[in-house]
Design brief:
InterPro entries: aa-tRNA-synth_I_CS (IPR001412), Arg-tRNA-ligase (IPR001278), Arg-tRNA-synth_N (IPR005148), Arg-tRNA-synth_N_sf (IPR036695), ArgRS_core (IPR035684), DALR_anticod-bd (IPR008909), Rossmann-like_a/b/a_fold (IPR014729), tRNAsynth_Ia_anticodon-bd (IPR009080). The chain is an alpha/beta fold. Among the domains are: 2-202, Arginyl tRNA synthetase N-terminal domain (Gyrase A, domain 2), CATH 3.30.1360.70; 262-377. It has 29 helices and 16 strands. The strands form five sheets. The chain has a five-stranded parallel beta sheet, with helices on both faces. It has a four-stranded antiparallel beta sheet with strand order 1-2-4-3, covered by helices on one side. A three-stranded antiparallel beta sheet has the order 8-9-10. The longest helix is centred in the middle third of the chain and has 35 residues, at 284-318. It is globular, with a radius of gyration of 30 Å. It binds arginine (ARG). The site of arginine (ARG) has 8 residues, from loops.
């Protein structure tokens, strides 16, 4: 078996010249721990994709198994770090360039391999070597660049490199590339671009198995509006969960609900006054919100006379008049207030009074049930519904003890606080851990939660997808954790933040819940679709399609910029079919599906196509772009930006749309039609893979 793992130049040439090579090299994986793990990864990958609803062709069944994955080199044997030619076609070229250039220059091939960078536009080549990065002393990089270009040996796989300033640019020769890339995509389908060199491969000891990541995202507050921050967290978190899954990690998707605190005592009391069992069951989220608004109005109404009375007492006291009567009155008002009622009720919840908890628990359960349905529309399902309420009192208690023992916390005016300025973190200021009245805070529960999660899950990494408004909160959380002696735990945590969405409202008013937003965008999308009557007629289920397009529209707008940047929620812009929008992306996918249907060609025709007939620049550029997909996935794991994937997909749609007139299928000679259709199907597959990674449901037609 070991021989197969070697990847010398002789093997390389074989790999590129024979399309069938890959399947021939599939072998028994059971003996190598590395490969055994790889197989686990493959299986794990199928889960989310199988559960996501899809309308696309390749979802019909065909389980992807390890035997269809080509393996002819692994990290174990390759001298190049993170080199997986069987998973990433570009690695084959990196290897080849490293070896060839190393041979003629005496530079360490591994060094060259590591410095080879991908390009942003195809006119800059497929790989580029920034010569200064090789740090060769005593020679001008420009001259070196020219020298390398001249010395580079003739190659079947890359054109002679071009020296452009300090960069050595490599362009792949089309024939071998096309055979490899198109052949692989047609075979690997949804697996193409997955199992990259992160996670498991990163691990020094593969026998430890898959790495585990907790991704905490969405995390709305029960009975309060699902605001733009929650929407962004949901979208970005969903993407990251998909990303880590295809990279081979075990992913735990966690929703940390805002479901605890005095306001939930208020909610229960409000429900007793204004609630309806029937409406609650029908529409829990909206009903609880209505109740919450009503009872909060009561609180606000009661505040005015209390305030007035307090002022009267104050002015009388100033005049040294007797206030005993008024104070009694105030006490009574306070005693009877909803605010005090809520406090009392919440106290009994905190004390674990089962009756007090029963109603609250029903609200929570019904809300979760409803949330689940909405998340499903976004192809998201959570593994854990945690929340502020779920943090055990013992965890809080133990956190206080540790803080005290380590000298992190101190008493201040009856409260327990952490003064970060005394612990070398000036910017973090001070934070209250326990209030004067003995109650814990938002931060306190997060501290308890981090310790619980460490114990329960032993995670390798944990990501919090939370708005940038909470930068300070999370920085404080991680710092306290570290100060408490959990430096290692804190080091495995990361805050993925994002900017604000401005002006998110539905046409009927301000936004309350995610469903309202999705409904509004779906309706708008339906209007837009109806404008093209001829096309509209052909759509089987226009409402469902409009809904899917609407969801894609919202998500694409959200993913268009960098996370840290905010953006304006713009219904008109996001639902347009022009520009780089969700509907346009779906159109690009649907158009490719329609071409397949009209061509009448079958999958086996495409696999058998003579790809040497793809000679046009448009075709070659498309293949070059398709070869980059595995690298794009890896890069997005570095940037943690959905935008990295989205930008790539739009680049592909642009190449596609400029090529349709040149690369016609209908009316072309049969063999040419087959080759072109094989290329289009590959493009559709990669578009599909990318859309799924981002969390969209690609449509077949609309
Ligand atoms: N572990 C955390 N604090 N996660 C973020 C929770 C977000 C919070 N429920 C909010 O709406 O603001």
């Amino acid at each position: 078996m070991g021989r197969h793992l070697l990847s010398g130049p002789w093997r390389f040439s074989e790999a590129l010249s024979q399309r069938s090579h890959f399947s021939e090299l599939s072998f028994d994986t059971s003996r190598s721990p590395f490969l055994r793990n790889l197989r686990i990864k493959v299986r794990s990958f199928q889960k989310p994709y199988a559960t996501m609803s899809s309308t696309s062709q390749d979802q019909a069944g065909a389980p992807v198994s390890i035997s269809t994955l080509s393996l002819h080199s692994t990290n174990e044997k390759s001298k190049f770090p993170y080199c997986f030619p069987s998973l990433n076609p570009v690695d084959v070229y990196r290897q080849h360039i490293g070896e060839s250039l190393g041979q003629v220059t005496g530079i360490d091939p591994v060094k060259i391999y590591q410095r080879l960078a991908w390009t942003n536009t195809l006119d800059k080549g497929d790989l580029s070597l920034p010569v200064p990065s090789l740090q060769i002393k005593g020679k001008n990089p420009q001259d070196l660049c020219k020298e390398f270009a001249e010395k580079f040996p003739p190659s079947d796989f890359v054109h002679p490199p071009t020296a452009t300033g300090q960069h050595l640019q490599f362009f792949f020769k089309p024939q071998a590339l096309t055979n490899t890339v198109v052949g692989r995509i047609l075979k690997e389908k949804a697996m193409y671009g997955t199992n990259g060199n992160h996670g498991l491969h990163n691990s020094a000891d593969p026998s430890k198995g898959r790495k585990k990541i907790i991704i905490e995202f969405s995390s709305p507050n029960i009975a309060k509006p699902f605001h733009a921050g929650h929407l962004r967290s949901t979208i970005i978190g969903g993407f990251l969960a998909n990303l880590y899954t295809i990279l081979g990690w075990e992913v735990i998707k966690m929703n940390y609900l805002g479901d605890w605190g005095k306001q939930y005592g208020l909610l229960v009391n409000g429900y007793k006054r204004y609630g309806s069992e029937e409406v609650l069951l029908k529409d829990p989220i909206n009903h609880l919100f209505d109740v919450y608004v009503k009872i909060n109005n009561d609180v606000a109404r009661q505040e005015a006379p209390i305030k007035e009375l307090k002022e009267q007492i104050k002015s009388k006291q100033e005049k040294n008049e007797d206030v005993a009567e008024l104070e009694k009155e105030l006490e009574k008002l306070l005693e009877d207030s909803e605010d005090e009622n809520a406090r009392r009720y919440f106290k009994s919840m905190e004390d674990g009074d089962q009756d007090a908890l029963a109603l609250w628990k029903r609200f929570r359960d019904l809300s979760i049930e409803k949330y689940k349905k909405t998340y499903a529309r976004l192809n998201i399902d959570f593994d854990v519904y945690s929340g502020e309420s779920q943090i055990k009192p013992e965890s809080l208690k133990s956190a206080y003890d540790i803080m005290e023992k380590t000298g992190v916390s101190e008493r201040s005016q009856g409260a327990l606080i952490v003064d970060f300025t005394k612990h070398g973190a000036k910017k973090l200021g001070k934070a209250i851990i326990v209030r004067k009245d003995g109650t814990p805070l938002y931060l306190t529960r997060d501290i308890g939660a981090i310790l619980e999660r460490e114990q329960t899950f032993h995670f390798d990494k944990m990501i919090y997808v939370v708005a940038a408004q909470q930068d300070l909160h999370l920085a404080q959380l991680f710092k306290v954790t570290e100060l408490m002696g959990y430096k290692d735990t804190a080091g495995r945590c990361q805050h993925i933040n994002f900017g604000m969405v401005r002006g998110m409202s539905t046409r009927k008013g301000t936004v309350k819940f995610l469903d309202d937003i999705l409904k509004d965008v779906g309706d708008k999308m339906h209007e837009v679709m109806k404008k093209n009557a001829a096309k509209y007629e052909q759509v089987e289920d226009p409402y469902k399609t409009a809904d899917t397009l609407g969801i894609t529209a919202v998500m694409v707008q959200d993913m268009t910029g960098k996370r840290v940047n905010g953006y304006d929620f713009n219904l008109e812009a996001m639902t347009s079919f022009e520009g780089d929008t969700g509907p346009y992306l779906q159109y690009a996918h649907a158009r490719l599906c329609s071409m397949t249907r009209k061509s009448g060609l079958k999958p086996e025709d495409l696999v058998a196509a003579d790809l040497s007939l793809l000679t046009e620049t448009h075709a070659i550029d498309l293949v070059r772009l398709l070869s980059q997909w595995p690298d794009v996935v890896l890069n997005s794991a570095k940037t943690m930006e959905p935008m990295t994937v989205l930008t790539y997909l739009f680049r592909m749609t642009h190449i596609l749309s400029s090529g349709y007139d040149v690369l016609k299928v209908l009316g072309s000679e049969h063999e040419v039609a087959k080759a072109r259709m094989a290329l289009y199907e590959s493009a559709r597959q990669v578009l599909h893979n990318g859309m799924r990674l981002l969390g969209f449901s690609p449509v077949d037609r609309y």
